[in-house]
Amino acid sequence: MRGIMKHRNYYRLLGVSKDATAAEIQHAYRICARKYHPDVNKDKDAEARFKEINEANDVLKDPVKRKLYDRYGEQWAEAEQRGYDGNEYVQRPDDEQSFYAGASGNGIGEEQVRDLFGHLFSGNFSCRTDDPSCSFGTGMQSYQAEIYLGLSELIEAGVTSFSCKIPQFNPASGQVEMQEKRVKVRIPRGSIDGSVIRVKDFNKTINSIGEDLLLTVRILPDPRFRVVDHDLFTVVSVAPWEAAIGAKIGVDTVNGSVNLSIPAGTRSGRKFRLKGKGLPGRDGRTGDMIVEIHIQIPASLSVEEKRLFKELSRKSQYNPRTADGQKAGVAAAV
């Protein structure tokens, strides 16, 4: 049975009710993931909480697993392995040892193991590089799973590793057993959300036929950036006076901070493109970063700041509520 944590209520972890919609669950997950992402939250318990949030999301986003969880609670994975689907029970022999027995018994021989894999372990299972374990579903030719990566891993495009559990036939016992396997995978340059990485000969079967592992890349939510293909989008706040008279501000990118010149008269919502500050592409080019300006009004003002704003209000000829932007009785410049 899979499990990476002492059980906690999945719905409570994400802060949603048991009757929450799939969209509500995903919205809550994104908020929680941003809050507890280890790159952002340096609290010593943040990493553990981040793992819990991801496990909760893995179960609740899958309709079948969610139904099992709603019915069987923390025993949902065991119920799944035994053939439950949340509605009915698929008959299995009472004695699992005889069911997995060798050819000399009443069970199955190794010739039938590959067929059993497709039946007992079908479907796609999620796996994250920070998980201590995960399970994979097998098909006739390959294993399929999802690998969750942060932006830094996509940029470095190096080798990462994770542990997983896969069904393998043990000739000594004549049984199919879940065995842990450490997998190393090289992340190709230019990988984005939805990219598929093929790991050749991931699992040698009982017939010495190498089965491939197909990993679908999923990008972990990042509190700083929204990712669209190879481009990154971010929102940067500026003070009213910076937008009015212009300023040079620091903008965080995936490779450190860069300076961005804000011209005088910049309005909220204006976008600036930083060429080559996005994610690397497979063709050698790099995506861009799109910076959207948000004018942030101070929540509180000092006495002196209030005096200056009042003085500006008296002296300024600007009125945003008129067609020409001028105060009544003031002629627009020609």
Structure in words:
The chain is α/β, with parallel strands linked by helices and 334 residues long. It folds into four domains: 1-92, DnaJ domain (Helix Hairpins, Orthogonal Bundle), CATH 1.10.287.110; 105-222, Urease metallochaperone UreE, N-terminal domain (HSP40/DNAj peptide-binding domain), CATH 2.60.260.20; 226-297, Urease metallochaperone UreE, N-terminal domain (HSP40/DNAj peptide-binding domain, Sandwich), CATH 2.60.260.20; 306-334, no CATH class. The chain is built from ten helices and 13 strands. It has helices at residues 10-14, 22-36, 46-60, 63-72, 76-81, 96-99, 113-120, 151-156, 240-245, 303-315; strands spanning 125-128, 137-138, 142-149, 159-170, 175-186, 196-204, 210-219, 226-228, 231-238, 247-253, 256-262, 271-274, 289-295. The longest helix has 15 residues, at 22-36.
Distinctive features:
single chain; 334 residues; alpha/beta; Helix Hairpins; HSP40/DNAj peptide-binding domain; 4 domains; 5-stranded mixed beta sheet; 4-stranded mixed beta sheet; 10 helices; elongated; disordered N terminus; disordered C terminus
Outline:
The chain is of the alpha/beta class and 334 residues long. It has helices spanning 10-14, 22-36, 46-60, 63-72, 76-81, 96-99, 113-120, 151-156, 240-245, 303-315; strands at residues 125-128, 137-138, 142-149, 159-170, 175-186, 196-204, 210-219, 226-228, 231-238, 247-253, 256-262, 271-274, 289-295. The strands form four sheets. Strands 1, 2, 3, 6 and 7 form a five-stranded mixed β-sheet that branches.
